[in-house]
Structure formats: structure tokens, C-alpha cells
Amino acid sequence: MDLTKRSQTESFLPDLCGTRALFVVVMVSELLVFVLVVADSGLTLAALPDLALLSLYVQLLTLSAAAILCLARPHLGRLPPARGAAFGYLLVLCLVCEAAWWALSPVPGELSLIELSHPQFFGRTLVVGAIVSALILRFFHVQHRWERQVAAEARARLCALQARIRPHFLFNCMNSIASLTRSNPAAAEQAVENLADLFRASLKEGSGLVTVAEECELASRYLDIEALRLGDRLRLSWDVTALPRDAVLPQFTLQPLLENAVLRGIEPLPAGGAISIVGRRDRSGCLALAVHNPRDATFTRTEGHQLAQENVRQRLEACFGSRGRLTLEETPTSYTVTVQFPAMSREALG
Fold it and tell me: Which residue, 114, 140, 203, 325, has fewest beta-carbon neighbours within 10 Å?
């Protein structure tokens, strides 16, 4: 399941058993306490006892509410969003108020923290709990909607970038096949079969992520078409055994880089040359795929060359954020482009 679909089916309530969500709850509650104390007593040393007592009171309510929602979250997730939120809100208020009374109620013959009757304490706690719970639940609701919006925008951006790259390489493949139709019909037929596989991959709906094995297979199909046209002028070297075969990356990451290597590296050279595709894993656990090709010393970048690389770079960033990168190394006679991405499988992405 991709990120967008997952965010649409989950409740807006986070896992309050987790450290991050619990930290947010505690901090929001403590900030509210600080505001209330400063508004009443100002920033003075005399306000410290009130701050400590109110913090104890509010954090007791907060942590109790978090524990209740943590336990009830699997059941609330089965309800419609509005009904689940309302039921969770009422559950928290009633149980937390009662728990606070039994935790802080006066003990005969001992110093008590409160001097109120049960109904009075329950009513005041209900008001405070309603305000604190409403603020925190509203925060999580807004955060959930923002995450869904970001996921939807990222998916739309990835689909748009994917769509831009499809026609470009497909038309180039058709030109290669057209040149073989009369001179080598059998080779043209094989090229059409390879192109059909490329079409199926290009038109397939989904998250836009494929495994390393699938991406290398797809790139091989494209290189087979170019090999029919260039013959012995195109030599290939694959060394991707260091990469986990089930790691994912955006579909058509290798193909546009290989197309640039063929059209602007191998094809202008009368004797052709070798393209090497090397995969490796760095010390941080990230994966890298490098495409290296020779080039003519007079080679200059063209607009199409830059657009293809920028397209790959943007799709890597859309999928992996700052952990998806594209880097270049060039000399007058060689050109190397490397894509880096985290080692994540489909199972890890959910």
C-alpha cells in the first residue's frame, strides 16, 4: 500500500504509545500550564508552587488520556472518523476525570492536595480536560490532514514527472525500430517485443516504485533495442550484485540515464565505447547506481540531456526526500552520473 492510500485509511489519532506522539502531548499540555500560570501570577518566583501543582494536575490528566487512547485506538479505528473522534473524546473526559479524583482525592487524617467535593472536582476537571483534549486532538487532526495533503501532492508530482519521461524514450525506440524494419526484419521484430515490455511498464498504474531487479531488467530491454541499431559499437558492463534485488527506486531511473549515455556518449564516437552500470552500498547503508560512459572531447550538454537528469533528480527527491540524490562527475573524455537512494523494500514502505 502506498503512502497516499495508507494515510486515507488510518485514523487521525497517532500511536500515543510511541515516544514522538507522547512527547507532543506532554509539551502542548505543559505550554498550556505555563500560559495559565504566567497570565495569573506573572513571571515571579512566587508562581513556581502554582506552576508545579498545576503541572502535576494537567500532566496526570494528559498521560491518563494518552494511555486510554493508546489502548482504545484499535477499536476507535474501526468506527467512522467523526464517530470515532467523538467517542474517543467523551471516553477520555469521563475516565480521566474519575481517575484524577481517585489519584488526588483527600485521605482522612493526611495533608490533601484538593479541598473540593467529588462533584465539584469532577466538574472542574471536566472543563480543563475538555479544553486540553480539544487542543491536542485538533493539533493531531490538522497534522493528519497536512500529511495527507503532502502525500497527495508528492504522488501527483511523481506521476507528472513520470508522464513527462514516457513519450521521450518511446519515440526514440520507435525510430530505432524503423531503421531496422527493412535491413533486419527479425531484429526489428525482437525490438518490437522489447518495446512492448517497455510500453507495459510505462503505462502500468501504481506507486511508481519498482525493485532494483525490475529496473535493471527494464533497462536491459532498452539497451537490447539500441544494441540492434549500434551493433558492436555498443558494449555493456553490468556490476550490480552488491545491491539488494528487492530494494525499490522510481521506475525509469536507469533508462533515461542510459539513453543519454548512448545518444550523447557512444553514438558520436566512430568506434563506439563501453557503458558500465555499477551498483554499490555505502557505509551509511544507502545504495548507489552509477552509469559511466566515454564521450567525445568536444561534447557539450544539450537541453534534453539536462532535462532528463533533472527529471530523475526530482523523482528521487519526491520519493525519498533528501536521501534521494543525483550527482555528476565529468571529464573531457568521460561522463558518470550516480543516483543514490535508501535501501528500502516494498514491505518496509508498507
Answer: 203
Judge contact between 230 and 266, C-beta under 8 A. Answer: yes
User: By the 8 A CB rule, do 70 and 16 touch?
Assistant: yes
Residue 291: name the closest of 225, 215, 202 by CA. Answer: 215
Q: For the CA atoms of the chain, what is the radius of gyration?
A: 31
- Residue 188: how many other CB atoms lie within 10 Å: 18
Q: Residue 150 in 3-state DSSP?
A: helix
25 or 330, which is more confident? 330
**Helix ranges restricted to H, the chain:** 3-9, 19-41, 48-76, 81-104, 118-180, 185-203, 212-230, 254-261, 303-320, 346-349
**Terminal-residue alpha carbon distance, the chain:** 6
CB 289 within 8 A of CB 279: yes
Q: Which pLDDT tens digit goes with each residue over 234-252?
A: 999 999 999 998 899 988 8
Hey, CA dihedral for 114, 115, 116, 118, is it positive or negative? Answer: positive
Q: What is the DSSP letter of 45?
A: G
Q: Extract the C-alpha cell encoding 110.
A: 493526611
β-pairing verdict for 334-341 and 287-294: antiparallel
Asked if 289 contacts 339 with a C-beta cutoff of 8 angstroms, the reply is: yes
Q: How far is CA 181 from CA 168, 186, 194, 226, 229, in A?
A: 21, 8, 15, 14, 11
pLDDT per residue over 55-111, tens digit each?
877 777 777 777 777 777 777 767 776 677 777 777 777 766 666 666 666 555 444
Separation CA 207–CA 259 (nearest Å): 23
pLDDT value, residue 9: 41
Query: How far apart, in whole angstroms, are the C-alpha atoms of residue 198 and residue 191?
Result: 10
Nearest to 85 by CA among 29, 133, 27, 26: 133
